[in-house]
């Protein structure tokens, strides 16, 4: 049995959740949904090993905890897959990690990465989620959404992966400020304009996605599956 009030975000790295659906998470929280996040990596593994990497991982974890508090996320779990190397692990191990999170939270709605992202971890997580969400009898997930992550989704070239053509939008006019406040916790991950992961670009994208649907700000998704 799914819990209609439970939502699960499956994100490769701490910050993908905020970038992809931070405004939606804050909105769902306000509406009474219990939002849980399962991160697959610590987000820093590929940058080196040793003390510096451990300190970076600690900082990233603290940033994630702060961002989760700001967004009203009920719980977060942290996987131990190597950052930017998820193509080197057995897909089945990733699937099992996602399945465990689904079994724990029984989410009616699950949000994760788009299949056509440039970042390999995003692509692996997308594939693992699809396998973990095979719509068999009794499976809790009824709605499956794929989000976009600036500096990964739009950096894939046409023909190299499926294009992000959104067909599901969430009006985040009332929560865009909360999204940007959560993003500020990850200031080490942000870059100066005109990088797509700059404060300006992320705001512009939210405004453009909003303009697409006649709202002040929005987040855009591809609907993977909805079971009514
Ligand atoms: Zn990422």
What keywords describe this structure?
228 residues, alpha/beta, Rossmann fold, 6 helices, 38% helix, globular, binds zinc ion
Radius of gyration: 16 Å
SS elements, strand count: 7
Identify low-pLDDT runs: none
Structural class given helices, strands, pairing?
Answer: alpha/beta
**Count of helical regions:** 6
Helix content: 25-40%
| CATH architectural group | 3-Layer(aba) Sandwich
The tally of structural domains comes to: 1
Measured between the Cα atoms of the first and last residue, the distance is 15 Å
Spatial sequence of strands, sheet with the most strands: 3-2-1-4-5-7-6
The chain-level mean pLDDT equals: 95
For the record, what CATH class applies? Alpha Beta
Provide a descriptive summary of the structure in words:
- The protein is α/β, with parallel strands linked by helices and 228 residues long.
- The protein has one domain: Rossmann fold, CATH 3.40.50.
- It contains 6 helices and 7 strands, in the order βαβαβαβαββααβ.
- It has helices at residues 16-30, 51-71, 91-105, 120-132, 176-184, 199-212; strands spanning 3-11, 34-41, 75-81, 107-113, 143-147, 168-171, 218-226.
- The protein has a 7-stranded mixed sheet, sandwiched between helices.
- α1 (16-30) links the parallel β1 and β2 (34-41).
- α1 (16-30) packs across α5 (176-184), α2 (51-71) packs antiparallel against α5 and α3 (91-105) packs across α4 (120-132).
- The longest helix has 21 residues, at 51-71.
- The protein is globular and about 45 Å long.
- The mean pLDDT is 95.
- Bound molecules: zinc ion (ZN).
- The site of zinc ion has 6 residues, from loops.
């Amino acid at each position: 049995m799914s819990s209609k009030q439970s939502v699960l975000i499956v994100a490769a790295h701490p910050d993908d959740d905020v970038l992809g659906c931070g405004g939606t998470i804050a909105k769902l929280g306000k509406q009474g949904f219990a939002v849980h996040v399962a991160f697959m990596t610590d987000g820093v593994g590929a940058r080196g090993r040793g003390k510096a990497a451990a300190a970076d991982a600690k900082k990233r974890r603290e940033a994630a905890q702060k961002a989760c508090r700001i967004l009203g996320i009920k719980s977060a779990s942290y996987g131990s897959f190597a950052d930017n190397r998820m193509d080197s692990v057995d897909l089945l191990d990733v699937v099992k990690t996602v399945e465990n999170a689904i079994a724990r939270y029984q989410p009616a709605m699950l949000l994760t990465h788009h299949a056509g992202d440039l970042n390999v971890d995003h692509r692996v997580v997308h594939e693992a989620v699809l396998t973990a969400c095979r719509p068999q009898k009794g499976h809790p997930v009824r709605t499956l959404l794929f989000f976009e992550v600036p500096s990964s989704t739009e950096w894939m070239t046409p023909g190299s992966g499926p294009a992000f053509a959104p067909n599901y939008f969430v009006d985040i006019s009332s929560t865009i400020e909360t999204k940007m406040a959560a993003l500020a916790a990850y200031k080490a991950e942000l870059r100066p304009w005109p990088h797509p992961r700059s404060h300006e670009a992320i705001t512009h994208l939210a405004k453009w996605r909003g303009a697409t649907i006649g709202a002040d700000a929005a987040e855009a998704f591809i609907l993977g599956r909805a079971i009514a």
